[in-house]
Amino acid sequence: IITKYVYELLEKDCNLKKISIPVDATESEPKSFIFMSEDALTNPQKLMVLIHGSGVVRAGQWARRLIINEDLDSGTQIPFIKRAMDEGYGVIVLNPNENYIEVEKPKIHVQSSSDSSDEPAEKRERKDKVSKETKKRRDFYEKYRNPQREK
């Protein structure tokens, strides 16, 4: 809830635009996003790039603990963004902890290996090995993206 609310504040209060990256990604490729002011790429004089720390914090946040226990001004980058924009800076807010968003792909019905009796056993074994490796990779990314989530 905190992250979603901070994202809303970045767009509404700070007038930042949510930009998908990479900009030329196809629908099947993984994507993420950053926030930018209108003049971030065209301001020839001043540019402020904000990068938060590691862990569960996301774009626009310094520390969730401060947001929860203190206030938004202490725990978010919003006061810095507003001041920078008042002083003529272009602003880019990076989002390195959320740098891999899986794209939902339509599910395709695959015949079970028992139905494909004409398929060589070696080919079935390779498929099983690849699917296990894919699951391991997906589990790794899920753990990386959501370190506090328990299975």
Automatic annotation (TrEMBL):
Q: Which organism is it from?
A: Gulo gulo (Wolverine)
Query: Which residues lie in coiled coils?
Result: none
Question: Where is the Arb2 domain positioned along the sequence?
Answer: 3-130
Q: Where is the composition biased (Basic and acidic residues)?
A: 120-133, 139-151
Q: Which GO terms describe its molecular function?
A: siRNA binding
Biological process, per Gene Ontology = regulatory ncRNA-mediated heterochromatin formation
What InterPro entries does this protein map onto?
A: Arb2 (IPR048263), Arb2_dom (IPR053858)
Region feature Disordered, mapped onto this chain: 105-151
Official protein name in the record: Arb2 domain-containing protein
Alphabetized Pfam families for the sequence: Arb2
What cellular component terms from Gene Ontology apply here? nucleus
